Amino acid sequence: MSLPKAPSAFPSWKTREKIALRAALIYAVISTVPFTPEFYQQDFDAGFNVNSYKFRWLDALSQNKPWFFESQEGKNYTGWFVTVVICLLAGWAWDRLDRKRIDFEKLYYWFYTAARYGIALRMSWFAWAKVFPVQMPFPTISQLNTNLGDFTPGKLYWLTTGVSPFFEVFAGFFELAATLFILFRRTTTLGALMMVAILVPIWFVNIGYDAGVELASLHILTLSLMLLVRDGKRFYEILIEHKAVALTYVPKITFAQNWKNSALLAFKYAFIFLFIIHRGYSYGTLYASGKTFKLPLDDGLAGFSGFYHVADFKLNSNTIPDAIGDTTRWQNVVFEKFNSISIKIDKPFKLNTKNSIRTTEYYGNIGRYYYGYSADTIHKLLVLRNRADTSSKLLLRYERVDPNKILLSGTNEAKDSIYVVLNKINKKYPLEEKRK
């Protein structure tokens, strides 16, 4: 007669579950922590128009693209799949080398923590950038005067979302609530369920519109689903069989050394302060000042903002008539409220959809040339630099004849002399009128 075995202090884990847990932990860590030297060597201000933002590196960390899907403009599914396979192989090897481990609850805690903070790190940026609509701003005057067919589907989606701040803010609050729930163990399951509800349509929207962040959204969705996998059977019992079942609760790890417990607590509150509180305050301040991450932050010439028809255009003292197909004459000009000027010219454009320039005005559209400018208001001089090619510049002297007329004279990119008469047209835009 044999005596029954004493119950184990730790729940039983099957071999496949052990391997999957180790692989999930590896994936959560390598997809969150930037390991490549290029991340730390980058110019954190490049392409973001936020040079005065003191903690720009926080945003760079949140938007860090794991090396395995950085290429192919956010659609490197092969790299993502290969990484998942490598993580599974690494999990299998780890399991072979660490056969004596019996406490897999502690290992699960570390995966649970890495996945939660990996999600919150990225989603806190998206959430606050929608609560205060600085991610997808209302279309600029230049965009309102760009033909619909000159936009890519992705750019058009961003603009149409920016047209409806109410929807954008609502989505932001939903994302922010899910992010906050994710950060606390008792509400992590609720937060993960909300993340799945948020990220599934975002992933499909990015696929359908080619909006540029489809793999990033799939990655965050994957981490969210990983947090729910352990309770998969319990969800079935609750939702389908209508049983009263308790979901998994992950207890806090307590170390024998108090300094380790204090360090973990300090990390959590530092994370919340930097990525939730400080980020929210910074984005709110930016939005209150009328600025956005997607557009330049420097103010333009006071009172110049608007749409201008080119009444007269001279090239090397020769008047160029307004004619369809003319590749030298300006057709119209837009002065934005920030330091950008866009010019409509009827000549071929090179479409640029690289994710590295997603914050610029010329991303995902053609039809207009965009110039950043600096103004010498004393000598009435403008230096225009092409946003797509800063080595290309125009030197212009300006004269404001009256509130609705501007004279420009100087040299263009080819060093030819130009003379331009601009008449302001007070256009009404239904999109803008509806917004008021």
Short description:
This protein has 436 residues and is of the alpha+beta class. Helix content is 44%, strand content 15%.
Q: Could you characterize what this model shows?
A:
- This is DoxX family protein.
- Keywords: Membrane, Transmembrane, Transmembrane helix.
- The chain crosses the membrane at residues 20-40, 77-95, 107-128, 156-182, 189-205.
- Strand 1 and strand 2 form a beta hairpin.
- The protein has two domains: 15-288, no CATH class; 306-435, Calycin beta-barrel core domain (Lipocalin, Beta Barrel), CATH 2.40.128.
- The protein starts with 14 loop residues before the first helix and ends with a helix.
- Helix 1 (15-30) crosses helix 4 (77-97), helix 5 (104-131) packs parallel to helix 12 and helix 8 crosses helix 9 (188-209).
- The chain is 44% helix and 15% strand.
- With 436 residues, the chain is an alpha+beta fold.
- The protein has 13 helices and nine strands.
- The model is unreliable at 1-8 (pLDDT under 50).
- It is elongated.
- It has an eight-stranded antiparallel beta barrel with strand order 1-3-4-5-6-7-8-9.
Amino-to-carboxy terminus distance: 85 Å
Shape category: elongated
Radius of gyration from the alpha-carbon trace, in angstroms: 27 Å
Largest sheet: 8 strands, antiparallel, barrel
Number of helices: 13
Mean pLDDT across all amino acids? 87
Classify the beta-strand content into a percent band. 5-15%
Helix proportion of residues, in percent?
40-55%
The H/E string reads: HHHHHHHHHHHHEEEEEEEEEH
Adjacency order of strands in the biggest sheet = 1-3-4-5-6-7-8-9
- Helix/sheet category: alpha+beta
Strand tally, please? 9
Count of distinct structural domains: 2
- The residue ranges in which pLDDT falls below 50 over 5 or more consecutive positions are 1-8
